[in-house]
């Protein structure tokens, strides 16, 4: 046999043996290597809708990458302001992967723990049948917020007057601890809704401070001690066509931000948010129309009241428009009796308008409120009015897995007759926040806040001046906050997206 023919025969046999082996063995990869990346490691809902082929061999992810893909913790908190694991609306996404620049956070305020039941933030869940098979409806989670606040006025009672979110100053404080369980609607299906959240800490006590006093005229079997450990407790259902009926203690959609501070762009909240309901107790009816629009009707006990202070409910109408993943608009109108006089001429009138534009690297939102109360309980039945506005901005400074964000918020609150905060004044504030996400579920925050009151007798507690009518109240206040928050959320049930 000639050398040329022998060489040719050897090459032919080698080629035949190579073509008969499985592709995974031919490439040198283990035969157990999956062909599709696990859903828990995908970095966006869009990528979750399309299988992603792996290269022949993929090095294992480190812990930070796994956490980033699996937990919706503090990263969601700093990427959204105020008012998520993703909302059900994320099922309706374009097919095909998108890079980090194109993946945007849906809306205010933070994780879906905060936002999914807040229709002021987005119009509702998209009715995309592709989402029904993969959406995990249940979530369990919570957070712990610990802070230290230095107040330039050093009030003897350690109270930051006018707020219920960070009510203590001049000390280390276990400010707020929350644990919750929730069941969300599956897009395109008739689904039950359920939410329960328990809370504790100074922020929990301050939240219910204005409930009717237990044993008083309106407070038998009710009052702050009864309600203070309940943050949310409601049940309901959503139909496949987007009709929602929910009853119980619910998150209020009014204003930008919520009482759960880790989910807001800034650590402290606006004077506006401290003047509107953080929660509502009653019935909500909502209808999503063509995915972008939602109309709402709320029938509730009253203005942040679990136990009503009169014999008639109040009504709120709402409309939200979600133009895209990046932009949404909300409008709420409140009409109802908030005093003993139930006549229509004594009803409170209030309007809240808000918008949000938000991406991974930048966000801006704003709100404007105006309200009036005809005080028939006072001589000459004067109309007491208030008005306020705020602009929220945030921007990403550094990082993807570990991030540094900044947020700046100017605001004003015109309380002409002292209806909201007790004395006639205009409150002007500026807040600057640094948010450091050290791990996916660990958030460090440093915030400076300046407050000014135009009331000539002052408004803020200072040293021994700790009564609302005391002499020596301050007109200015500088506060520096240091906060560390641990945030946890885990979705389960159904099949992963």
Q: Descriptors for this entry?
A:
single chain; mainly beta; Porin; 16-stranded antiparallel beta barrel; 11% helix; 38% strand; globular; disordered N terminus
Low-confidence stretches: 2-133
Distance between the termini: 63 Å
Work out the strand percent.
35-45%
Shape: globular
At CATH level 3, the topology is: Porin
**Count of alpha/pi helices:** 9
Provide the CATH top-level class: Mainly Beta
For the residues shown, what is the average pLDDT? Answer: 76
What is the H/E string? HHHHHHHEEEHHEEEEEEEEEEEEE
Overall radius of gyration: 27 Å
Protein name: Outer membrane beta-barrel protein
InterPro entries: BBP2
Pfam family, one: BBP2
Keywords: Signal
Explain the overall architecture:
With 497 residues, the chain is mostly beta strands. It has a single domain, classed as Porin, CATH 2.40.160. The chain is built from nine helices and 16 strands. A 16-stranded antiparallel beta barrel has the order 1-2-3-4-5-6-7-8-9-10-11-12-13-14-15-16. Strand 11 and strand 12 form a beta hairpin. The longest helix has 18 residues. The protein is globular, with a radius of gyration of 27 Å. The N terminus is likely disordered. This is Outer membrane beta-barrel protein. It holds the Pfam family BBP2. It comes from Nannocystis punicea. Keywords: Signal.
Summarize the helices and strands and which ones pair or pack:
Layout: H1 3-20, H2 23-26, H3 45-48, H4 63-70, H5 74-78, H6 112-115, H7 129-132, E1 138-151, E2 172-183, E3 191-200, H8 202-207, H9 224-227, E4 230-238, E5 243-251, E6 279-289, E7 293-300, E8 314-322, E9 327-336, E10 348-358, E11 362-374, E12 383-398, E13 403-415, E14 425-439, E15 442-453, E16 476-492
Antiparallel strand pairs: 1-2, 1-16, 2-3, 3-4, 4-5, 5-6, 6-7, 7-8, 8-9, 9-10, 10-11, 11-12, 12-13, 13-14, 14-15, 15-16
């Amino acid at each position: 046999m000639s050398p040329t023919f022998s060489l040719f025969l050897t090459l032919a046999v080698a080629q035949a043996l190579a073509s008969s082996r499985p592709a995974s063995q031919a490439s040198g990869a283990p035969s157990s290597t999956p062909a599709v990346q696990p859903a828990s490691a995908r970095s966006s809902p869009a990528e979750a809708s399309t299988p992603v082929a792996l290269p022949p061999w993929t090095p294992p992810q480190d812990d930070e990458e796994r956490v980033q893909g699996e937990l919706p913790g503090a990263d969601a908190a700093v990427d959204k302001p105020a008012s998520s694991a993703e909302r059900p609306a994320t099922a309706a996404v374009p097919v095909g992967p998108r890079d980090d620049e194109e993946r945007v956070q849906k809306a205010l305020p933070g994780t879906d723990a905060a936002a999914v039941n807040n229709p002021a933030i987005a119009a509702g869940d998209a009715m995309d049948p592709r989402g029904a098979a993969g959406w995990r409806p249940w979530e369990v989670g919570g957070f712990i917020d610990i802070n230290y606040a230095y107040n330039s006025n050093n009030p003897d009672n350690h109270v930051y007057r006018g707020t219920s979110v960070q009510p203590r100053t001049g000390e280390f404080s276990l400010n707020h601890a929350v644990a919750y369980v929730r069941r969300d609607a599956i897009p395109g299906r008739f689904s039950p809704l359920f939410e329960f959240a328990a809370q504790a800490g100074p922020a929990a006590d301050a939240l219910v401070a204005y409930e009717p006093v237990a044993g008083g005229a309106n407070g038998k079997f009710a009052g702050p001690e009864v309600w203070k450990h309940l943050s949310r407790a409601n049940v309901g259902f959503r139909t496949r066509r987007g009709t929602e009926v929910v009853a119980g203690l619910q998150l209020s959609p009014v204003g930008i931000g919520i009482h759960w501070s880790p989910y807001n762009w800034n650590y402290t909240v606006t004077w506006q948010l401290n003047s509107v309901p953080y929660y509502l107790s009653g019935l909500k009816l909502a209808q999503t129309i063509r995915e972008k629009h939602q109309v709402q009707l709320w029938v509730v006990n009253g203005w942040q009241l679990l136990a009503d202070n009169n014999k008639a409910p109040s009504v709120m109408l709402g409309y939200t428009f979600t133009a895209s993943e990046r932009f949404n608009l909300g409008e709420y109108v409140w009409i109802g009796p908030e005093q003993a006089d139930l006549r229509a001429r004594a009803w409170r009138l209030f309007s809240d308008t808000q918008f949000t534009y938000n991406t991974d690297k930048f966000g801006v939102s704003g709100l404007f409120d105006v309200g009036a109360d005809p005080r028939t309980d006072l001589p000459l039945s004067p109309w007491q009015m208030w008005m306020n506005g705020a602009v929220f901005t945030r921007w990403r400074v550094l990082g993807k897995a570990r991030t540094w964000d900044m947020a700046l918020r100017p605001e004003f609150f015109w309380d002409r007759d002292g209806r909201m905060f007790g004395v006639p004044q205009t409150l002007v504030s500026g807040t600057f926040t640094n948010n450091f996400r050290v791990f996916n579920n660990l958030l460090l925050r440093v915030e400076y806040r300046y407050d000014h009151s135009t009331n000539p007798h002052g408004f803020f507690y200072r040293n021994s001046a700790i009564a609302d009518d005391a002499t020596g109240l301050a007109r200015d206040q500088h506060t520096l906050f240091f906060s560390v928050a641990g945030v946890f959320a885990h979705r389960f049930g159904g099949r992963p997206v």
